Recover the amino acids of this structure.
């Protein structure tokens, strides 16, 4: 948990540390004493083991139900719902519009949580019997997992759309794109460079161009995940 501005979503603290480690009970008590009326955020990603599907409106919620949702913890928000899933163990970047009205909060993200109050004045509340302590977060449904899994498809010259996208990534990306961009770049370099240490050194140098750079531990997690997948591909080829 991290403290957010009252009736708002901006953190009251520099929260990058809490993307990698969980605050202690004593730390949370200090925040409560300092900001008794603040909103609260649940940090998503590998640090908490959570991925949240953020449904902005009723139409998005209906589309998610149509695609298929398992029984999961659910928060009613000011306009829609947050659906909690178990982190899959591979990098999950924050994404906007996985479909219309639906975003993903994964590694390096957070969501407002009860008893926070939405800017509209409506409280965030757990749906009956759907709190985190009532039902364990289930795995990502297959359709959502397929949308979020980092791509390691071969990027070859002549495919202008892929080449253009790689050129854009090479110039550095912002916070919401870093994990997915690192996975794309790792997939490309590890397929073409015979020495993985060279690929890692290049990716670490590229990371310095991001705004802000990914924490080194998180970057290595992304690269290791793609490296293992590339090794499996070569083994079965």
């Amino acid at each position: 948990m991290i403290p957010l501005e009252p009736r708002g979503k901006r953190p009251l603290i520099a929260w990058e540390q809490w993307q990698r480690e969980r605050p202690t009970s004593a730390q949370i008590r200090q925040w409560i004493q300092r900001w008794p009326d603040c909103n609260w955020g649940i940090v998503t990603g590998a640090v908490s083991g959570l991925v949240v599907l953020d449904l902005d409106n009723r139409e998005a919620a209906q589309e998610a139900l149509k695609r298929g949702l398992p029984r999961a913890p659910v928060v009613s928000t000011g306009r829609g719902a947050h659906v909690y899933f178990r982190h899959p163990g591979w990098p999950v970047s924050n994404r906007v519009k996985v479909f219309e009205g639906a975003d993903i909060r994964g590694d390096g993200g957070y969501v407002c949580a009860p008893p926070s109050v939405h800017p509209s004045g409506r409280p965030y509340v757990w749906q009956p019997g759907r709190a985190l302590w009532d039902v364990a977060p289930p795995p990502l449904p297959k359709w959502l997992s397929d949308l979020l899994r980092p791509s390691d498809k071969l990027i070859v010259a002549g495919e202008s759309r892929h080449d253009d996208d790689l050129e854009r990534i090479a110039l550095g990306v912002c916070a919401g794109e870093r994990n997915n961009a690192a996975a794309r770049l790792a997939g490309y370099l590890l397929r073409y460079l015979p020495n993985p240490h060279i690929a890692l050194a290049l990716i670490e140098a590229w990371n310095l161009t991001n705004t802000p750079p990914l924490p080194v531990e998180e970057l290595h997690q992304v690269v290791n995940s793609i490296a293992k997948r590339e090794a499996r591909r070569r083994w079965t080829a």
About this structure: Residues 160-236 form one domain. The two ends are 45 Å apart (CA to CA). Residues 152-162 have pLDDT under 50 and may be disordered. The chain has seven helices and nine strands.
